[in-house]
Amino acid sequence: MISKDEKNELIKTFRVHDADTGSAQVQVAVLTARIQQLTEHLKTNKKDFSSRRGLLKMVGRRRRLLKYLRDDNLQGYSEVITRLGLRK
Fold first, then answer.
1. Residue 64: CATH number of its domain
2. Is the pTM higher than 0.85?
3. d(C-alpha 50, C-alpha 26), whole Å
4. What would the pLDDT profile of 53-65 be if each residue is shown by its tens digit?
């Protein structure tokens, strides 16, 4: 799990307006941070299958959010992709 401070920092970085906490850009950024931490956990705990399933669900959710963002706001999509360093 990411800490509350890390999550707030991601929200401040990726928000669209001042009161934004749940836009697609913010959700993708938070999911990416959680995916990275869980990937590191699974490198050392290879038999943790329940966490692996959770990781796959998060990757799928991020993929759907990115697809929505690509269809709805192409400029925001490309900005999020480059800032997070994702391959697309």
1. 1.10.287.10
2. yes
3. 26
4. 999 999 999 999 9
